[in-house]
Amino acid sequence: MRSKIVAGNWKMNKNLSETKGLLGEISDKLPDTEAEVIVAPTFVNLAESAHILESSKIKVAAQNMHYAKNGAFTGEISADMLLNINVDTVIIGHSERRAYFGETDELLAKKVKAALENKIRVIFCFGEELEERKSGNHFNVVESQLKNGLFELPADAWEQIILAYEPVWAIGTGETASPEQAQEMHAFIRKTITEAYDASIANEVSILYGGSVKPSNAGEIFSKPDVDGGLIGGAALVADDFIAIVKAI
Ligand code: PEP
């Protein structure tokens, strides 16, 4: 169901003590909000984070997951391992996974399928590179990432999907898509889903914007009709900034 969401992707930041500190600060300062608030700490601190937030409104997500049930996949984490520590949301397809770890659309489609089969909700990330935007190819790129990653799914699987449009040129660069650029792409995403499935699925899916969202620009970006919230990187590591972004929604 479509809802307002602010999710913090902590990436490879914060050791256990720092994680506890940041979770404590975010919990203490969390305003009363209708929005769903999610944090995604690093794997080694996931179990402890889920434990700390057990009775909190803040939810915990993983940053990645392997598609196999179990087995000889050194360094990887399975759906069962996440569920066993009460983590039922996973980020899949982040541009850093695609760029630095060679994750292809084909691999991501397998991960999405495995997550959904295990009733793990997916925050599916996608977005164009700078050159693709400059050459006017951004709509084609986004359409093909959606098609290759998600369009084999049955209609009812979409209840478990959250989309995160993250133009790669805006991630960690301080450069943000303008609210108009975000709105334009989010509307295009809904149109693409309408064509592949139907309007009810397109209108019910939550679409987050990600890419240098900060307290100073969050309000304007979130005010756009097709933007349902944000996936936040750098600003999610500073409690006051993350809280200000939650308040902006
Ligand atoms: C991200 O990595 O998902 C992200 C949006 O990062 P940042 O907010 O730092 O651009």
Q: Give a short account of the largest sheet.
A: 8 strands, parallel
The number of helical elements comes to: 11
Number of strands: 8
Q: Strand portion, in percent? A: 5-15%
Give the SSE string.
Answer: EHEHEHEHHEHHEHHEHEH
C-alpha Rg (nearest Å): 17 Å
Task: List cofactors, ions and other ligands.
Answer: phosphoenolpyruvate
Residue runs with pLDDT of under 50 for 5 or more positions: none
Strand order of the largest sheet: 3-2-1-8-7-6-5-4
Specify the helix fraction band: 40-55%
* Overall outline: globular
Give the rounded overall mean pLDDT: 97
Class from secondary-structure proportions: alpha/beta
Distance, first to last CA: 17 Å
Query: Assembly type of the shown chains?
Result: single chain
Written description of the protein model:
The protein is an alpha/beta fold and 249 residues long. 43% of the residues lie in helices and 14% in strands. The chain has helices at residues 16-29, 46-52, 79-84, 95-100, 105-117, 130-134, 138-150, 179-196, 199-204, 215-222, 239-248; strands spanning 5-9, 36-40, 59-60, 89-92, 121-126, 161-165, 206-210, 229-232. An eight-stranded parallel beta sheet has the order 3-2-1-8-7-6-5-4. β7, α10 (215-222) and β8 form a beta-alpha-beta unit. The longest helix has 18 residues, at 179-196. It is globular and about 45 Å long. The model has no long low-confidence stretch (mean pLDDT 97). It binds phosphoenolpyruvate. Phosphoenolpyruvate binds at residues 9, 166, 171-172, 210-213, 231-235.
